[in-house]
Amino acid sequence: MSPDAPETAADAVASLRDRLREAARPEPDVSPLDPERVPDEPLALFRSWLDEAIDGDVVQPHAFVLATTSTASGPTARTVLLKDLDEAFWFASSVESPKGVQMTEDDRVALTFTWEAQGRQVRVLGTASAGPRDVAEADFLHRHPDTRAAAIAVPQSAEFDPDEADAALRAARTRLDADPDLVPADWTAWRVDPVSVEFWQASTGRDQVRVRYERVGDDWRRASLWP
Ligand SMILES: Cc1cc2nc3c(=O)[nH]c(=O)nc-3n(C[C@H](O)[C@H](O)[C@H](O)COP(=O)(O)O)c2cc1C
Questions:
Q1: Average pLDDT, 10 consecutive residues per value, the chain (227 residues)
Q2: Nearby residues of 180 by Cβ (< 8 Å), 6 or more positions away
Q3: Separation of 77 CA from ligand 1 center, angstroms?
Q4: Taking burial as the number of CB atoms within 10 A of a residue's CB, which of 10, 117, 200, 226 is the most buried?
Q5: For residue 78, how far is its CA from the centre of ligand 1 (angstroms)?
Q6: What is the fold of 27-225?
Q7: Cβ neighbour number for residue 53 with a 10 Å cutoff
Q8: Atom 3 of ligand 1 has which residue's CA nearest to it?
Q9: pTM for the whole structure
Q10: How far apart, in whole angstroms, are the C-alpha atoms of residue 3 and residue 176?
Q11: Does the beta carbon of 99 lie inside 6 Å of ligand 1?
């Protein structure tokens, strides 16, 4: 045991609690969120925050947590990558994956973007639907060949035998070599049309500001939320 190691389980718990309490906090170097000076609709603000995350060298600024649900599964969540943004948030995945099956059963989803270094979080509620086939095809064909081979070798999230993985990948590469434009039928470009978008900004010190937009017909209703 090293001289610094805690001696008992209780010490270990106390030490972890102390370390968590002292964990580094962000020191945001971005403009504060002023509820009086935000756009009338949320996607303009989201786009400007995403731009600032990209310009601020946030690692994977387009990563977000996607939460889905179904009667059988209950809620589940995982990280995916934003592929585009227009009036909807776009990402790509298999319709046959667990999340794809859940979104097919219940289209309500929650998205959470966190740009910790900038003290920012955006929470989106919306409905997911499959986008046009040509968008899914373009997404798949832009992927690295190894990623494409992995996507067709074994169904996403399926249990597999590691002894058979190499052979499955080799077979997938052979299929792609023979048909470079192959796009599996289950590959899907998903769009999420937002009904609620909430912005959370930690400003200097311990202050936080929250602004939520909610869809009302063709308009957005805006409110400040107590942090
Ligand atoms: C940073 C990061 C980005 C990811 N991007 C995607 C993605 O864009 N699409 C995707 O299907 N899975 C992506 N994944 C993998 C998912 O988190 C998840 O493991 C996979 O989609 C299976 O999820 P499911 O079993 O809930 O369907 C990503 C994982 C990480 C950590």
A1: 62 86 88 93 98 96 98 96 98 97 97 96 98 98 95 92 92 95 97 98 81 97 94
A2: none
A3: 10
A4: 200
A5: 6
A6: Pnp Oxidase; Chain A (2.30.110)
A7: 21
A8: 80
A9: 0.92
A10: 56
A11: yes
